């Protein structure tokens, strides 16, 4: 859409663009030079700090792979537990009965308004005080608890938005052939809404993967980021090198998920068999904020 | 029942949370607007930079960015953002990390706002002989800001919740105080409820207020 702002460029505009390009490049190069020379001054570019990652499998097999496994484990557990919970609350919020709809709404809005870290800290203390979960397992339990409480409520909004994004005729048609409310939801609306929601759910996975890092930094959960910490201690305080490698892994993992989500979204929008309702990545950003009025507009936002 | 709260600086902790949020919000609005301008501009190199920045930063956990500022920038490279004492250094580093992260989302919110401006308006502005800067600054961006109040408010609410990540580098905000209180007092549910309600008080009115503002200023089309 960027081209709406400027015309095909004439000779003067082209010259000016070249000037801008050169100035920007110079500024960027200066910044890069400053970063690299500062790193060099502090001895952070020494080869022995970076060597372990390139010349041996040891850092990968001892630190990074186990960390990545824990990150993926926490993310997978969270989404597996949060999805059905979210579906339940999402449907409950659409109920005709106020005594179901209102409490479900309060629960969902409450957990969406609270930071995940607060929920994780709560989970850690909860398992320490009231359960017999061993102290080794507690961080994982706490991370998953925090992620489930938060993401179930975001997924509930995704489910709700997915169902609301279906054309009205779907429910009306189901009623017209004599299906009950619960049959219409189960047999007609939900299966189509699941298709519409898929890209949004994949995008939400990115949020979950990113939030597992909180467990590493604050709750001593041995995930990828925490692995970088112990790793840099072992390889002679190569903090910058370790964090860079871990960041690249996070970016690669999440970028793959993001790309998959947008591929899925494009594919679903193209396909003739669905109703054309698709919830994309942009909707997920809105839902993650936890704003009260935010969800209503999302219902129509995704339709193509 | 609430006696123990007198031993802790609850309001102070939430005040730090608010300060983190406000300073980061202003910073990321500025840097995010610049990024958005780069992404829709005519210079390919700047467009590429904007796109790369947004895609990279959005996919890194905020925790990693904030730890990077502390362990990398401050402790390894000795860049302390002009502060001397531990507390101020970490506060400023947290604000820097939050700005770097949040501006990517501000940029995307603004870009979606720019996309709502009808093509005809930009064409008309160009036909009048306005330059790219004039088209963007006087015709498109003012309308884009008005129609992206909603998405920007969502970014702000997410930012308020994200300030808790500063606990990872020891900034004395609400989440860190919660951790400390839970360790010292046997009042888990009460403490959690107080902190949770604190965040609800911060985020809920923000959402309602900006929802109202968004409706008021939206360009009717």
TrEMBL record, chain A:
It is found in: Cell membrane. It is a multi-pass membrane protein. It comes from the Bacteria. Keywords: Cell membrane, Membrane, Transmembrane, Transmembrane helix, Transport. Signal peptide: none annotated. The keyword Translocase does not apply. The chain crosses the membrane at residues 18-36, 74-94, 106-128, 140-166, 187-209, 239-264. Residues 68-261 form the ABC transmembrane type-1 domain. InterPro entries: AA_ABC_transptr_permease_3TM, ArtM/GltK/GlnP/TcyL/YhdX-like, MetI-like, MetI-like_sf. Belongs to the binding-protein-dependent transport system permease family. This is Amino acid ABC transporter permease. It comes from Streptomyces cathayae.
UniProtKB/TrEMBL annotation, chain B:
Keywords: Amino-acid transport, Cell membrane, Membrane, Transmembrane, Transmembrane helix, Transport. Pfam families: BPD_transp_1 (PF00528). SUPFAM superfamilies: MetI-like. InterPro entries: AA_ABC_transptr_permease_3TM, ArtM/GltK/GlnP/TcyL/YhdX-like, MetI-like, MetI-like_sf. Gene3D superfamilies: MetI-like. The keyword Translocase does not apply. It is a multi-pass membrane protein. Residues 14-210 form the ABC transmembrane type-1 domain. It comes from the Bacteria. The chain crosses the membrane at residues 12-38, 59-83, 89-107, 188-213. The keyword Transport applies. CDD domains: TM_PBP2. It is found in: Cell membrane. Belongs to the binding-protein-dependent transport system permease family. HisMQ subfamily. This is Amino acid ABC transporter permease.
